[in-house]
Amino acid sequence: MKFSLLSIIMLLPVLASSQTSMGRPFSVYLNPQKGEAALGGISIMLRTTQNPYPFNGIPVDLNLHRVQEICFNQAQKDYENYRAGRLSEQAYRAIPMSNRDTAMIADTTYRHTIHVLVGFNTAGKKVVIFDKNQNRDFSDEVLLEFDTTHNSFNLRMDENHRFELPEIELNYEHFDGQQIQKRTAWLRFDPYRIIRLRRVKDEIERLLELRIIQDEYLDGIFSFKGLEYKVRVFHKAPSASTYLGPTVRTHISPKYRPMNLTQGLLRGDTLLLDGHPVILAGLSMYGDSLRLIELPEQIKLWGKEPGFFARDMVFIDVTGASRRLSDCLKNDQYLVIDFWGTWSPPSIKRMPEVQDLYDKISRLKKVDMISVAYDEDINKVRSYIERYNRSWPQAFDDSNLFNNASSPVRQLQVKDFPAIFLIGPDGKILATNFMEISKWVDEKLE
């Protein structure tokens, strides 16, 4: 019987947590869908093949070529090489455990690797051939040619000035822990090197680089507390790294609302579904379901989104004085925190609106406001404060101090500037949208 040590390792952080040990796990079943490469497609690295067998059908007019490979189960490939004696036991044991997970490995060989020939012919065109039938013969496959000179780029732009990359469907076999199944991978590839994957070692490697983009995602629908939600997951081909690694990006939204695909959830993230806390535990081992854990309502959740609680933090003003968030919220006070930077044009553009917001807040007894400049030059910050006559508390968060654990920017995980937060007296984040906070202040004034 196969046994996955990594499937237990994946659950250890969840089982070790006193919060999640009381949670109710449930699963959302997922189905593969074609598309979305432009929004969330994950790049697949091609490797130069180490296949010991010769390849037939290589065009004779190629000045330069290399056979590379797409492997849909590296753990299986490494195991087959080890079993065939092409990989020593010492070398095999040195492979990370995530690529030796026995639950992902079959005792028999199957078709999990597709070879790709990339080269240049005598006419200077880039040649790409996928060995789709996996017979190590390129003569019975379609030969694709591409003019990769910069002058040809504009000819391939669509009406939205985006590059339409060629697509390819590849059939491969996948072991699901019990049996070998046939799968289809929807991919796009970039022969033009529009987005470079990495710094290459030499000119030949640069010319023969081929970026492969996974043009597929997983989606599903589930009901929770009487409401329906939709799920979209961008992932790599099923492997141990699928459920253990950070490459799985998940998006969850109410079923009938547009889905925001700009940011994704990672394994271990907590989200609120209509105010109810849920932890994203990750994909199942074979990528066919998403695991979620419902948490008890009384648990206090720390985060950066409305509904979560803000961790305590220290505001250091431009004079050097400091005070904590917890002190600002005493006596049932609300606090608006405005994040900005002298280096951020949108922050400077919003300054008049922030001034108007403060003018309203100054008329309220139970609401305070503090601005936090995330910058490296405190003198420049002071100059801007004086220039724009910012008379309310002004804090400075030094962007040079990477290990400042109590930094407001780090505690609230601010990545885009300007940003704004409305914190309630109990420390809960009530809003993070400027218009919403401005409306809330207007209602308080009525």
From TrEMBL:
Residues 1-23 form the signal peptide. Keywords: Signal. It comes from the Bacteria. The keyword Signal applies. The keyword NAD does not apply. InterPro entries: Thioredoxin-like_fold, Thioredoxin-like_sf, Thioredoxin_domain, Thioredoxin_ResA/DsbE_sf. Residues 304-446 form the Thioredoxin domain. SUPFAM superfamilies: Thioredoxin-like. This is Alkyl hydroperoxide reductase/ Thiol specific antioxidant/ Mal allergen.
